[in-house]
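Quick question: what would this complex look like in 3D?
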Amino acid sequence: MKDVPFGLKTTPLYPIFKEMGANFTEFGGYYMPVNFKEGIVYEHQAVRTKAGLFDVSHMGEIRIKGKEASDFLNYVSTNNIKKINDKQIQYHIFCLESGGVIDDMLVYKFNSEDLWLVCNASNQEVVYEHLNAVLKEKKFEAEIIDEGEEVAVISIQGPESLKMLSKVLGEIDLKYLTFTKLDNLIVSRSGYTGEDGFEVYGSTSEIYKLTVQLLDVGVVPAGLGARDTLRFEAGLPLFGHEITNFISPVEAGLNFAIDFEKEDFIGKGALLKIKAAQTKRVVGLVLLERGVARQGYPLYDGEEKIGYITSGFMIPGTKDTYANALINANYKNGSVVEIGIRNKRVKARIRSKRYLKK
Amino acid sequence: MRFYTKTDEWIKVEGKKALIGISKKAAEELGDIVYLDLPSVGDQFDKDEAFGAIESVKAASDLNMPIGGKISKVNEKLEDEPELLNEDPLNEFIIEIEDFDEEELKSLLKPAEYEEA
């Protein structure tokens, strides 16, 4: 087994996964399991039919506290934290003035003056710097606390996740997108797989202990590989793919997370223009011939280049091959286009991005 | 005797033909193999040229020619059952070639050298 490559961080669960013989990869500055011995197909199906466990301790946690914490968040984010109650969770997107995306995240509302942001590992420093820069300029009455290093997180996902987690933590009564404190843990009903699931935050020692207990009762460990195929199948966007510095949430079809009624927020002007112009959009594709379309592959209509692939997989355990693509918005669902895969052209039909059949 | 490339293909000469596949290490690192993009019989490739691609769940990787030659056979079983390459990579060939120059084998790695690399 290789040692941790120079310069990469590990999460508190690394020793457990190393012992299990996981394959590791670099991700967002961390050395993370990409898959375990049984492989991505097994892990993907375990989450769809039973329960899987992901280490998501690499994600960033940032707290915003203070009298104007909610106003501050509403100014940097597209969504509106004032629309949810305490102990609820909301999906947020931070945009550039251009409308491109800085990052997307879940926000846990402890109360209107205490908000907790869980952002992508690779973006946590950018988000932290961005928040500080905006705070300095706009002088909201709020403080920003980086809690990323102290917190460990696991995500238990799948139809049996409630049953499995209850075996270890006792009875859990939570609605989807809400959270509660359970001793020193924070437990939320949330996830990124299209299944029922939970995320548990705590100190490194407590999450380590909980992980061992969950693996003991039969929860299947899963890596970043299955996390990607699961979120893709469920139609969920991934930063760096469906949303980027150059693909806005409007184009990505995430209008549900944009409150244009708010007086002002960063990117509002650009997003309104993008919304009115409707020149590009992110669509789903079903491949009509053999092949797998990967990020960056071009889309064609005859000789004209009309877009590119943002993500693509053969759904694990099936022969169904789908892809997401950013495409000229003239092309409607049902149209057939061609994907350039190496030296070939493969036909694909435009459809919705949710491939999960349930 | 089997020879290896630095890009994890193997080649085994049998008379006037040679079989080409991928190493055990490659199969393990790729994880679940889901699709192979293969050439047609009669196609000609140079040494180190990509003759096809292998798709795992995660990503696509090129398949490279250990030596130059003409495709004489393609393992068609792999079209429907690419997972056979995960199960037994050393006994499942991907392509068979002919019209090659055995001199080109000299630049390849012997099994012991490949293990160490």
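Answer marked as accepted. The two ends of chain A are 39 Å apart (CA to CA).
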